[in-house]
Amino acid sequence: MTLPMLPNRDNMALRSSELWRPPVFRRETNSWDRSRAALRRFFDLQAASIWNDLQSLLSHCRGSLLDVGCGAQPYRVLLPKTVTYLGIDTTDAQANFGYTVLNTTYFTGETWPVESCSISTVLATETLEHVEHPEQFLAEARRVLQPGGTLILTVPFAARWHYIPYDYWRFTPSGLQSLLTDAGFTPPVVYARGNELTVACYKVMALILMLLLGTWDSGSVRLLARFTGCLLIPLFLVTSVLGQLSLKSRGGNDCLGYTAIAVLPEPSGDCA
């Protein structure tokens, strides 16, 4: 059977790359790294919104924290020094996402290399959208958590398709609540990161960055894109400031993403 096709349209299911990809995060090991990360957060509204939420949430952590899909471990510095940190990621993190970091345990498959009922807090930042089977991921979070343990998730919402083709999902608060309660967690608290203004600023900034840094096939198109992008740098700076100010809002129905917090009920049948 021949599928009907739309004229002058690309089949996006066949796409395996993207025009522009932001630089990977780097682990902060010195004052220069911290300054560079702070500068990036000023211009990267997604990173800034996650940092703002986790700066408050992670300060309350105690015991042990498991960072799943930890990448460059950018939020490790927010933890109290008394917390035991464990970072895990998949063995294809380098090939698919560009991350190979010391003191990370890499694994294959869907079972985490962590003992059951051994972790106080599970953290997963911008990871769930890259997981083909979210229910299995949350089942693992339940397995490794101690009774009364906390799960902290951040997920994107108004974000472009990224790390193509390894970006599978966008979650709403309703969807997060359904997934987490079905997985055996308490109904989550879900916070929006930003509002409609934040999203508008983010989209404008992403377009300008694509013009400045995108990989264009045609040399003349690339030159025109770079020239246009340079002209728009003042607009980029203005939208950065507006976007940062908008992150101080209570959140809107259209936002950059969500931060969800859920607790594993006590006692847990898995740890009985």
Q: What would you say about this model in short?
A:
With 272 residues, this protein is an alpha/beta fold. The chain contains 8 helices and 7 strands, in the order ααββαββαβαβαααβ.
Describe the structure.
- With 272 residues, this protein is of the alpha/beta class.
- It contains 8 helices and 7 strands; from the N terminus they run H-H-E-E-H-E-E-H-E-H-E-H-H-H-E.
- It has helices at residues 31-43, 45-57, 93-97, 134-144, 173-182, 196-213, 219-231, 233-246, and strands spanning 64-68, 84-90, 104-107, 119-125, 145-156, 189-193, 257-263.
- It has a 7-stranded mixed beta sheet.
- The longest helix has 18 residues, at 196-213.
- The model has no long low-confidence stretch (mean pLDDT 93).
Q: Return Rg in Å.
A: 20 Å
In the residues, how many domains can be counted? 2
CATH fold assignment of the largest domain: Rossmann fold
Strand order of the largest sheet: 3-2-1-4-5-7-6
- Helix-residue proportion: 25-40%
Name the shape in a single word: globular
Q: Largest sheet at a glance? A: 7 strands, mixed
Number of strands: 7
- Distance from first to last alpha carbon: 54 Å
Structural class: alpha/beta
Spans of at least 5 consecutive residues with low confidence:
none
- The helix tally amounts to 8
Query: What is the residue-averaged pLDDT?
Result: 93
Portion in strands: 15-25%
Per CATH, the class of the largest domain reads: Alpha Beta
- SSE order in H/E notation? HHEEHEEHEHEHHHE
CATH homologous superfamily of the largest domain, by name? Vaccinia Virus protein VP39
